[in-house]
ABC transporter ATP-binding protein (Actinomadura rubrisoli), 318 residues
Amino acid sequence: MTVQRIRTASAQDSGGVAAAVSLRGVVKRFGGFTAVDGLDLEVPAGSCLGLLGPNGAGKSTTMKMLTAQALADEGTITVLGFSVPRESKRARAAMGVVPQQDNLDEELTARENLEIFAHLYRVPRRSRRQAVDDALALAHLTERQLVKVDDLSGGMRRRLLIARGLVHRPALVLLDEPTVGLDPQVRAELWGLIDGLRAGGTTVLMSTHYIEEAERLADECALMSHGRVIAQGSPARLVAEHAGKLVVEHYGPPDRLLDVERVAHGAGLPTRRTGPSVSVLKAETIPPSVDEELGPDGVRRAASLEDVFVVLTGERVE
Ligand SMILES: Nc1ncnc2c1ncn2[C@@H]1O[C@H](COP(=O)(O)OP(=O)(O)OP(=O)(O)O)[C@@H](O)[C@H]1O
């Protein structure tokens, strides 16, 4: 029986589903700077939540507070029913943590790295070999288990890092920017791995600033900006709410773009800049007279989570 099942009675409830992670009014300051500013967030058990936000939004700090690597100045944090930081040892034993920075032991083989963590996480001696075999298989590293980490490719190292966080079969796994800096093919490979975890019932909390990553993997996205969640919901719901169904992109010289923005804003329509173009969101609601004023040169496309991200955070996308 997982810790999650044992402790759900004391977990906060969200819409009938027990929360694996709950943060209420959490504040974290670094000197005079407030990195996390009254954060409320719940991750329903068994779901994958993507914590999405631009660099510096407070995602990593939030992840660190869940493991008590950073201590909140205000608010309450519950992880798998354990109060953090008071019960952080027990919470940490029940969750898997995959850090942003690769901190594998390069002198050891892939298998040895997993064995050490199986020991640290107190996987019983009799099931340790199987646990390591399973983690290697999950990360498609069985063939490479005897290779020193130093000789593994970047993608293999990242898969090993994830496998290491899963060796004790945690009910919850925290992934901090799991595919940052990896090429698209390796990223896609890792997405398959993460998707498999969620399909197997593991709760996943993943921070990312790649919109496509959140869109593909997350049941729900929480969009963070300046230390707060500014919007939360399924990717489809966020798009419908903030960008509508259709977007019309207008290209042209700076004066023309300013003109498009003026007309759209006059009609109460949100816009976003994309390099040499302005996109008018919620285009399906444009009244005919405004449509005429905007001109016929617009290119229509479906609204996306990227539109939501840019409009709500005012940031560019990587
Ligand atoms: N130990 C620290 N001391 C001072 N400031 C910090 C510290 N850790 C984080 N910060 C600041 O807090 C803010 C939030 O940082 P955080 O790393 O949580 O953001 P993030 O959303 O994870 O961004 P990134 O994707 O760049 O890691 C940033 O402005 C960062 O400079």
